[in-house]
Fold:
Amino acid sequence: MRSHVPSYELVDARDLPHALSMVGEGFRPIAGGTDVMVLFEAGKLVHKKWISIRGIPELRSIDVDPGYVTLGALTTYTDVRRSAILAAEFPLMVQAAALTGGIATQNRGTIGGNIVNASPAADTPPALLVYDAEVELVCARTSRWVQYTHFHQDYKVMDLAGDELLTRIRLPRRFADWKHFYRKVGTRRAQAISKVCFAGLRRGDKIRIGLGSVGPIPIFLETTDLSAILPIDDVRSTARYRMQVAKNLMEEFLHVTA
Ligand SMILES: Cc1cc2nc3c(=O)[nH]c(=O)nc-3n(C[C@H](O)[C@H](O)[C@H](O)COP(=O)(O)OP(=O)(O)OC[C@H]3O[C@@H](n4cnc5c(N)ncnc54)[C@H](O)[C@@H]3O)c2cc1C
Structure:
């Protein structure tokens, strides 16, 4: 059942300091709204005070310097798909973006939103893990960079304070000469939520693997041992099927990157 519109408050952020001050007063950020509005439509959006950060231009950019490619949190899947530097050096980001939802979702949904929504089935986290991403978290007083491998702590629990915004994601430019592999297994080839999502990098005997939908948080591995994954039975699949798919994808990864 749809939510009762008048019981919600939605403010448009004028700029980043305004957004940070409102978040400090208990407002929650809404970016593309593609996750938030699903909850709203279903009558399950518990929090009532929201600040739209969508119009803050400095949060939507892809910047390149010698060390990093840095994405603003509001970078959309479409922005990612159109980026030549990401295609050249971080192709798994582009593949994840191309396999996320349909065109409308790709035009609106943001990478920052995908990270903070923290669905175990989200499609960019496995790619962000293998690329050793860092996320910038900012509040009104200070800012900090956190390794993405440490950001998710438990189901929907993150290293993110209530008064912080995720503002940027930076990818170190040291993986271009690795072999890159990405597979999303869902019910269909398009517009499907992942049953298992696998991102892999390999250079010689070094491997980096990111897995989605196989536990409460996205999993990062530097070995082929899958004993750390904890797939569950849910409406989309069974734990047994997920485990078998993860094993099959590992085999395929090792084969095509050999
Ligand atoms: C039809 C449809 C298909 C979809 N398909 C896929 C798919 O294939 N794969 C997939 O991974 N996802 C999919 N999604 C989910 C969704 O599109 C993504 O998770 C998207 O990236 C969310 O981004 P957003 O900007 O819309 O987030 P919002 O809905 O605006 O926000 C999501 C959450 O993140 C928080 N948040 C947003 N930005 C920030 C920020 N900068 N700092 C702090 N907190 C923030 C919000 O407070 C909220 O809790 C789909 C959604 C729909 C409706």
Notes: The mean pLDDT is 95.
